[in-house]
Predict the structure.
Amino acid sequence: MATSIPSENLADEQEMATLFSSMNHDAEMEAMALHGLLEANGIESFVVGPSTIPSVEFQVQVLRSRLEEAEKVMNDARAAGTSAAEEAEAAQEAGNLATE
């Protein structure tokens, strides 16, 4: 006997939530960096905003069901600072060289 998932629960799981939003001059760059960080941690995300109109807000959105996890990844990365990003990039490059 098959059971069905109530449609409102499915809709809640697929609802997007804004994790980051900015209209700063570097908003697109920051949004893309955060998007890459989330994707690297297995959290699907989307960048919303037109790159042709710099005065329009950029956002990074994630599934509402993963918002708390995404906030933790973002906050941990901010707390670690640029040195952690540089270390991760160097480790990734070293791994890529080893597989070639």
